[in-house]
Design goal:
Helix 9 packs across helix 11, helix 14 packs across helix 15 and helix 14 crosses helix 17. The strands form five sheets. The chain has a three-stranded parallel sheet with strand order 1-2-3. A three-stranded antiparallel sheet has the order 4-5-8. With about 450 residues, the protein is α/β, with parallel strands linked by helices. Bound molecules: glutamic acid. The site of glutamic acid (GLU) has 8 residues, from helix 6.
């Protein structure tokens, strides 16, 4: 990761800048990959910048392995950031911004222990009240604070929200208004002084000149507090766009299945990055989901406003079908390095319509190269086929000429003609067009397979 020095920019003069801000505490899954992709496409379309920010101030949960995996997954998807940085390397800076809030009287110390806070929430729940922090700490007398300090308690610090309506024009949800009085004052500094997400996120969005915050709708409530923070810092706030979340095929939450929906798992299943990107870029829009070959193409047709407000259904089976469709159209030039050694364009064009993942290419390559275990269904037919095998090098017309001659000699036609031949030559009931496969198998191997069948 490159560690930038803080840059103060005037967002009004800035090109589009977006950020993808994962916490490196786990895998990248379809949900956050979609957020990353949408940010990337939005930036690309606007010729802006895409930043990767690791929200890793929570050192107990963040890990370098997870960070590496995220970088790798993003690279696999083709989403290279213009700049990447870690919040953990900017802790001192957030502390400076926190001091500014203290000076403004907007950050106040609280001494409740986690147990005391949990108890307050429980009592609120029993009284059917929302679990909003009661601001008891605001009423502490200096002597009480001194007593806590003497006991060794260290305060955590909360941002004093102004209890008024916060409104913004969400690029996806339209006008949104949240009464800040219905939200707890967010904790910005932990007891140990570590800054928390609400603070560090806003500071970075200001310092890096983020113009658009595109993220999941689970952050809508956070936005109210964040907008008040931007205002407290006297900084213009970015535009917000909250994406409807992904749900499963039957509308269920994806949370429990996130591991199986991790990019690593999908990759292991043979999903192509561009199939995934094509799928995620259109899911939740009314536009058809089509396999697209490059991210640039996806960006050209991208419009943030296409995303609807209803949760988008993610179905692995649909992704797999799209993956197959993607491969069926994939030109040789885009896949050649990943094909088995010796496999040429004719081979790829012959088999691409018969695979669902690229792994299956190896099966067809083995069938072309052999050895194949021929299946004999009709010995007489195979014997005739061997007799009538055309001389010379096979081309795509050989199959038709040959099978016509076999039909004339044996009286077999249709399925009774083609099926035993396919089984004898490939050992399989189905597969690519035989007129394409036959020249790839070649005369020598064909003869050998027929001889073994007839034996
Ligand atoms: N780290 C936060 C998350 O992963 C970032 C949210 C945001 O984009 O502000 O949910």
């Amino acid at each position: 990761l490159s560690t930038p020095s803080a840059i103060a920019l005037d967002p009004r003069k800035m090109a589009v800048t977006v950020r993808f801000a994962p916490s490196p505490t786990g895998y990248l899954h379809v949900g956050n990959a979609r957020t990353a992709l949408v940010n990337w496409l939005f930036a690309r379309k606007a010729q802006g910048r895409f930043l990767l920010r690791f929200d890793d101030t929570d050192v107990e949960r963040a890990s370098i392995e997870s960070e590496r995996a995220i970088v790798e997954d993003l690279r696999w998807l083709g989403l290279e950031p213009d700049l990447a940085f870690r919040q953990s390397e900017r802790i001192d800076l957030y502390a400076v911004w926190a001091e500014r809030l203290k000076a403004l009287g907007r950050l106040y110390p609280c001494y409740e222990t986690p147990e005391e806070l949990a108890l307050k929430r429980k009592i609120a729940a029993l009284g059917h009240q929302p679990p909003i922090y009661d601001r008891a700490a605001l009423g502490l007398r200096p002597s009480e604070k001194a007593k806590y300090e003497a006991e060794g308690r260290r305060p955590h610090w909360r941002f004093l929200l102004e209890h008024r309506e916060v409104a913004w024009d969400d690029l996806l949800r339209g006008p949104v208004a949240i009464n800040a009085g219905t939200v707890s004052d967010p904790v910005l500094l932990r007891q140990d002084g570590v800054p928390l997400y609400a603070l560090s996120s806003v500071v970075d969005d200001i310092e890096f000149g983020v113009t658009h915050i595109i993220r999941g709708e689970d952050h809508v409530t956070n936005t109210a507090a964040q907008i008040q923070l931007f205002e407290a810092f006297n900084a213009p706030w970015p535009q917000f766009a909250h994406l409807a979340l992904l749900v499963g095929a039957r509308g269920e939450g994806l949370a429990k299945r996130l591991k199986s929906l991790s990019l690593g798992e999908l990759r292991a299943r043979g999903i192509e990055p561009m199939a995934l990107a094509s799928h995620l870029a259109r899911l939740g829009t009314a536009k058809p989901i089509e396999p697209v070959q490059t991210l640039s193409e996806l960006a050209a047709g991208f419009d943030l406003g296409d995303f609807g407000r209803a949760p988008a259904r993610f179905d692995v089976a649909e992704l797999e079908a799209l993956n197959a469709k993607f491969l069926h159209r994939l030109p040789y030039a885009m896949v050649r390095e990943r094909l088995p050694e010796g496999a040429d364009e004719a081979f790829w064009l012959a088999v691409r319509g018969n695979i669902r993942t690229l792994n299956e290419v190896r099966d067809w390559w083995r069938i072309v190269e052999g050895p194949v275990e021929p299946v004999i269904e009709d010995g007489a037919l195979i014997a005739a086929a061997r007799e009538l095998l055309p001389a010379g090098v096979f081309d795509e017309r050989s199959w038709t000429g040959w099978t016509r001659a076999i039909a004339a000699a044996t009286g077999r036609k249709g399925r009774a003609l083609y099926r035993p031949l396919r089984l004898a030559l490939t050992g399989r009931e189905q597969g690519p067009e035989m007129h394409n496969l036959l020249p790839l198998i070649g005369r020598e191997r064909t003869l050998e397979r027929l001889s073994r069948s007839a034996a």
